């Protein structure tokens, strides 16, 4: 059976972590979170800045682990997916070149709902998540590309309805 890479695509607060944890548990698959790995290296002091050089290094380490898992025939869940469609195409190529099938779980959430969720999350000061301001979310919207037509073959549709990600 061909291994799958389950990629979570959405803005902060959209339910990526909730869904990735459910999928990982239900399918008994390893799960990698870019945020969680990042905050293992860079202590999360609820800072508003991010070290993107360090993040890129961590992302490459995760990709090495994914390549190893795919080579062994194992599927994997990633609690992230690049926001730009051009970078997602690079991921699809990476996954398929290592013998896997990309599956994208796109989690679109209205802006007002995202802000509500992020405000609640900010109050909890959960170390797994970066503190998020209204301005940061606005910047993220500018840097986010929803899936385009050529990505439709990878976007999972039916299975999303069985996963409730609203409990953030």
Task: Using brief descriptors, characterize the structure shown.
168 residues; alpha/beta; Rossmann fold; 4 strands; 45% helix
Order of helices and strands: EHEHHEHEHH
**Span between termini:** 34 Å
Sheet with most strands: strand arrangement: 2-3-1-4
Cα shape: globular
How would a crystallographer describe the biggest sheet?
4 strands, parallel
CATH class descriptor name: Alpha Beta
**Rg:** 15 Å
* Arithmetic mean pLDDT: 86
- Determine the CATH topology: Rossmann fold
Tally of separate domains = 1
Tally of alpha and pi helices: 6
> CATH homologous superfamily - what is it?
P-loop containing nucleotide triphosphate hydrolases
- Number of beta strands: 4
CATH architecture: 3-Layer(aba) Sandwich
Strand proportion, as a percent range, falls in: 5-15%
Helix content: 40-55%
Given as residue ranges, the uncertain stretches (5+ residues, pLDDT < 50) are 160-168
The structural class is alpha/beta
